């Protein structure tokens, strides 16, 4: 992953995502949970798994929190920030196309809403409930299922977003799932929920 696709994304993109999460009339619910201090950092790895070939993600499943969603492709908006999925009744997650595809070396970034305006809960409403070791499956366009295990879940203030850890270069295939979190004020949320995961297997 190039420095441009990492650091440029880190500053402008996430602010837009979090403002977009939930518009007027959205439900709020309780704040996302914070992981325990015993959770490993994203840099700690278990066994090494070989990267897979580049292929666009088309579906995302997270069995522990009931997520099974199509994945759309997200690029850059006119102002240089990262696009976010549209606020619709049929909410979807979105993969940022300038990050590695899931299963490639580097941090693949998938964004989703926590609430979608008057439509209620977003696809990542329960993201903060994930725990270390739980499975995330990305189905790729070429038929491959890239399976990840959660290594860390964090709820962080937007002002303290850990850009280097989320977007910085890593030497293995990893995944970042990002949404809004914490207390809601006006039309926005105060925090981000970030899930870090590492590739454990890949199969046709």
UniProtKB/TrEMBL annotation:
Gene3D superfamilies per the UniProt record, alphabetical: Sortase
Signal peptide: 1-26
Region of interest (Disordered), residue spans: 26-52
Biased composition (Low complexity): 27-43
Matches recorded under PROSITE patterns: PROKAR_LIPOPROTEIN (PS51257)
UniProt keyword annotations, A-Z: Hydrolase, Signal
Pfam (any one): Sortase
InterPro entries per the UniProt record, alphabetical: Sortase, Sortase_dom-sf, Sortase_F
Annotated protein name in UniProt: Class F sortase
Species of the source: Streptomyces coacervatus
